[in-house]
């Protein structure tokens, strides 16, 4: 997708959401398969300084402070160079205020010397409420203010912002017309987009324009236990078992108790998720992209049968479960590709309940919880358990709610022996019990 | 407690599960594609003449219809042409020409009335209102109308002051307009420039402050810069993304299928076979042809299937593999001949002939599904310049339908024979197609819609249009 590495540079006063955007963007890019890493200059400063005293450090006339801050930026840029040129990274997110034209000029020069493309992401906001909220959510818990009480911390931070204000030079329509950037105003009410150069920048702009910070929760769960689940068979398009139907009823009760405003319900196009949603008594949307991973020639087989008929395939899958593609089927990697529009729409929406399948739920969960490709295919997504995800600060809170209806276990751990020559016993060591 | 225990039935055509009971839930047809528009949306163009409004209107409409959002353009200039019979000169557009102003306003209102009809009677989802809409007053009129009817409004303003771009624009699409049918070139250009001047006197662009509560995108200098304000919903977000990816740089898109494959020879559909000897010859010929086109920076794309990759390998250039370009998944019918499908699944075979676009193979896909999965390919094709796409019959039909604005009914029957390259070059408001047969024989894989599509038809009737094979 990208030839030259890309350097994304945030711009903006403190408490404008730069780190929030940096972390979220990094999570998204890694999930879709673009190796990305963020470099937070404030972090370098904390390591350098050890102890934060007060806003005085940030005063524009503090020579000592300025020297240290410049050194930290340089150290961070060196690490960026290491990541993009040596370690094979494709995107680096340089998270700092970068509020002066001079600082941005230095970064542009650095990027030019190293053959990186630069894309600026500026966040502009003058809404006092939003800034106050910001400070409460992420600054008070910051290592800088660990020994302060709330009032002291807020007061100091406001003075810190003031230090930057006098020298702040926002990206200018005329002076910066040759740069590539997006200016986000008032938390996404308005965007100014200039000179998008390539595919990755276009995807980044689309993503940034779809995210929001309105509080909401996303509920993820699988369909109720199905007839094929009970038999230990994978895939297929069977209906719910008796216990699965019980679960659907419990889910209905759970949703009603949660009293969720304007809940959207999404299912796949497979019978078992639709049957589950039908029980809720509310409208729902069917997405083909939420269908379970296609197991190709292994559809509707038990693990024992896969081992019998395709022992090589079975071993290869254990060797790299993320990239392994079933013959005439799909891989987890393919799943992520096809789920990307679902994630994009989840970002746009507010309260949503997604009733899906094991592999699909693992992919979605990995996106929200920033799990790497190695862990993704082994995330625990049991039947009859709802995961409630609520964004907080820079991450996501997870509450796991088992709805009290028993079901088979469908989780197969990675066995110890993944060798193609392994014995049948070794291969089937971790297969969960079934009828 | 309701006995709402899912008696689900599977719709035989699209294979979607729908509740059997006639409750208010089952009214939601169980669409095979998520429905994102609740209220109808009006996209309202804003801008001086020759700023690309009609180009944007037509292109956006084509894209939305292709992805399944029923959309129609209402061009107010067309209403004006119908109302005034013959165009005399730019004087019609002078702001002090009260008689003309009356006519122009009446045309806008007539167009709005038709918009209303389209939304209510024709069940349209999106309307593109193509006119200058360059005054606050006119935009107020439209906003008022939309509010009264419960329509959402999204403005698309095109701003450009580059005289070269405007001159090119006039050359490409104004000189051939019915307005200038009997003028010579210089006269037409002079008149049109005076026409633009008439509008300039009263033009009020969307204002950052006064219009801060409206939803809009401002496109500056053919896409070098965008200002996006208050995107309300999914469809507006998709529209913004699309508009930000299109460009007007001249280029060509080459569409071709893989060379003839082993399974093609046997009359079998799908599968993942390699090229036949003639297919390999085609791959060479394709290389020669493409080199002859002398394109700088040609991108080559294939699917993940052996036959397209083998074809690309022969070109000796770098290529990118897209899983999204894989042929339609025929599910249980993979690798069967039509005769075998008729033998084993006669009902499925008939259903497919009844509605080839929406029909989904059991455990497979439909053309409608294909379009969904090809959308990112189209988006990237819009971003790119010269591209050669080596793909498959059904996939090529979908891509071609997008470029040539073919309806869902026609799409599955578009002719995409083996060993024939289609060169698509955007021109004016559409696309020029050159079909180049590379002179290497291949089997015909095109099966026309038979006359009898009844599920009870004879095998003979069903197989009447099957092309020859070994």
TrEMBL record, chain A:
The keyword Lyase does not apply. Residues 2-215 form the 6-phosphofructo-2-kinase domain. Keywords: ATP-binding, Hydrolase, Kinase, Multifunctional enzyme, Nucleotide-binding, Phosphoprotein, Transferase. The active site is at 223 (tele-phosphohistidine intermediate), 292 (proton donor/acceptor). One of its GO terms (biological process) is fructose metabolic process. In the C-terminal section; belongs to the phosphoglycerate mutase family. This is 6-phosphofructo-2-kinase/fructose-2, 6-bisphosphatase 4b isoform X4. It comes from Betta splendens. The lineage of its organism: Eukaryota, Metazoa, Chordata, Craniata, Vertebrata.
UniProtKB/TrEMBL annotation, chain B:
Keywords: ATP-binding, Hydrolase, Kinase, Multifunctional enzyme, Nucleotide-binding, Phosphoprotein, Transferase. It comes from the Eukaryota. Residues 29-250 form the 6-phosphofructo-2-kinase domain. The active site is at residues 258, 327. GO terms for molecular function: 6-phosphofructo-2-kinase activity; ATP binding; fructose-2,6-bisphosphate 2-phosphatase activity. SMART domains: PGAM (SM00855). It holds the Pfam family 6PF2K. CDD domains: HP_PGM_like. GO terms for biological process: fructose 2,6-bisphosphate metabolic process; fructose metabolic process. One of its GO terms (cellular component) is 6-phosphofructo-2-kinase/fructose-2,6-biphosphatase complex. SUPFAM superfamilies: P-loop containing nucleoside triphosphate hydrolases, Phosphoglycerate mutase-like. Substrate binds at residues 257-264, 307. Homodimer. Synthesis and degradation of fructose 2,6-bisphosphate. In the C-terminal section; belongs to the phosphoglycerate mutase family. This is 6-phosphofructo-2-kinase/fructose-2, 6-bisphosphatase isoform X1. It comes from Betta splendens (Siamese fighting fish). The lineage of its organism: Eukaryota, Metazoa, Chordata, Craniata, Vertebrata.
């Amino acid at each position: 997708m990208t030839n030259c590495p890309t350097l994304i540079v945030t711009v903006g006063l403190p408490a404008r959401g730069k780190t929030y955007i940096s972390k979220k963007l990094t999570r998204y890019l890694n999930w879709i398969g673009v190796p990305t890493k963020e470099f937070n200059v404030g972090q370098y400063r904390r390591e350098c300084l050890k102890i934060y005293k007060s806003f005085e450090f940030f005063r524009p006339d503090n020579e000592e402070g300025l020297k240290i801050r410049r050194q930290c930026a340089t150290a961070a840029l060196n690490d960026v160079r290491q990541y993009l040129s040596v370690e094979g990274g494709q995107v680096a997110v340089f998270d700092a205020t970068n509020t002066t034209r001079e600082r941005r000029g230095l970064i542009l020069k650095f990027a030019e010397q190293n053959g990186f493309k630069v894309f600026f992401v500026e966040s502009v906001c003058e809404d006092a409420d939003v800034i106050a909220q910001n400070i409460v959510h992420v600054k008070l818990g910051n290592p800088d203010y660990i020994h302060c009480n709330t009032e002291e911390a807020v007061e100091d931070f406001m003075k810190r912002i003031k230090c930057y204000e006098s020298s702040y030079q926002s990206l200018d329509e005329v002076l910066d017309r040759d740069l590539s950037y997006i200016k986000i105003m008032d938390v996404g009410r308005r965007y100014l987009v200039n000179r998008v150069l390539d595919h990755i920048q276009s995807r980044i702009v689309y993503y940034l324009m779809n995210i929001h910070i309105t509080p909401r929760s996303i509920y993820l769960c699988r369909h109720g236990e199905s007839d094929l689940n009970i038999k230990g068979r994978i895939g297929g398009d069977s209906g719910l078992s008796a216990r699965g139907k019980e679960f659907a009823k419990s889910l209905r009760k759970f949703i009603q108790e949660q009293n969720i405003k304007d809940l959207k319900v999404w299912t796949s196009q497979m019978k078992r998720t639709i049957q589950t949603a039908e029980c809720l008594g509310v409208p729902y949307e069917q997405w083909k992209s939420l269908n379970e991973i296609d197991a190709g020639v292994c559809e509707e087989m038990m693990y024992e049968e896969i081992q019998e008929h395709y022992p090589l395939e079975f071993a290869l899958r254990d060797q790299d479960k993320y990239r392994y593609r079933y013959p005439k089927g799909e891989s987890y990697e393919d799943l992520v590709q096809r789920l990307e529009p679902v994630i994009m729409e989840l970002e746009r929406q507010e309260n949503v309940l997604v009733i899906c399948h094991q592999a699909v739920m693992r992919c979605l969960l990995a996106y929200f919880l920033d799990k790497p490709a190695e862990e993704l295919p082994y995330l625990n997504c049991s039947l009859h358990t709802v995961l409630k995800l609520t964004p907080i600060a820079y991450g996501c809170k997870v509450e796991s709610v088992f709805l009290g209806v028993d079901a088979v276990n469908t989780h197969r751990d990675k066995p110890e022996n993944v060798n193609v020559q392994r014995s049948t016993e070794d291969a089937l060591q971790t297969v969960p019990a079934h009828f | 407690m309701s006995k709402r225990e899912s008696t689900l039935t599977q719709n035989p055509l699209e294979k979607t599960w729908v509740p059997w009971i006639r409750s208010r839930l089952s009214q939601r047809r169980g669409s095979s594609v998520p429905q994102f528009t609740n209220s109808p949306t009006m996209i309202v163009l804003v801008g001086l003449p020759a700023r690309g409004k009609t180009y944007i209107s037509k292109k956006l409409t084509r894209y939305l219809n292709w992805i399944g959002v029923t959309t129609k353009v209402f061009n107010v200039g067309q209403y004006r042409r119908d109302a005034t019979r013959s165009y005399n000169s730019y004087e019609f557009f002078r702001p002090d020409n009260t008689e003309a102003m009356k006519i122009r306003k009446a045309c806008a209102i007539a167009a709005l009335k038709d918009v209303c009809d389209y939304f209510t009677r024709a069940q349209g989802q999106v309307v593109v209102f193509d006119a200058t809409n360059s005054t606050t007053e006119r935009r107020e009129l439209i906003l008022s109308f939309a509010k009264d009817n419960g329509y959402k409004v999204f403005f698309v303003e095109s701003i450009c002051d580059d005289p070269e771009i405007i001159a090119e624009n006039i050359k490409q699409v104004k000189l051939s307009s019915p307005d200038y049918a009997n003028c010579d070139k210089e006269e037409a250009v002079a008149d049109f420039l005076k026409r633009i001047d008439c509008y300039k006197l009263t033009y009020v662009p969307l204002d950052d402050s006064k219009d801060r509560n409206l939803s809009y995108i401002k496109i500056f200098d053919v896409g070098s810069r965008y200002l996006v304000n208050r995107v309300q919903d999914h469809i507006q977000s998709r529209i913004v993304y699309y508009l930000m990816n299109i460009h007007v740089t001249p280029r060509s898109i080459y569409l071709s299928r893989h060379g003839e494959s082993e399974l093609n020879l046997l009359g079998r559909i799908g599968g993942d076979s390699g090229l036949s000897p003639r297919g390999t010859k085609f791959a060479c010929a394709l290389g020669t042809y493409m080199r002859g086109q002398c394109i700088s920076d040609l991108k080559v794309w294939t699917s993940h299937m052996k036959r397209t990759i083998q074809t690309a390998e022969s070109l000796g250039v770098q290529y990118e593999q897209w899983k999204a370009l894989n042929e339609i998944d025929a599910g249980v019918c993979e690798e069967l001949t039509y005769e075998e499908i008729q033998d084993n699944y006669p009902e499925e075979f008939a259903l497919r002939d009844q509605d080839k676009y929406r029909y989904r193979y059991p455990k497979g896909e439909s053309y409608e599904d294909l379009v969904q999965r090809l959308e990112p390919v189209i988006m990237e094709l819009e971003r790119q310049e010269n591209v050669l796409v080596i793909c498959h019959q059904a996939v090529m039909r979908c891509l071609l339908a997008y470029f040539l604005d073919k309806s869902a009914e026609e799409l599955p029957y578009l002719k995409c024979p083996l060993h024939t390259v289609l060169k698509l070059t955007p021109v004016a408001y559409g696309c020029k197609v050159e079909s180049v047969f590379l002179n290497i024989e291949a089997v015909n894989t095109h099966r026309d819609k038979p006359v009898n599509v009844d599920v009870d038809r004879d095998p003979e009737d069903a197989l009447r249009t099957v092309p020859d094979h070994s």
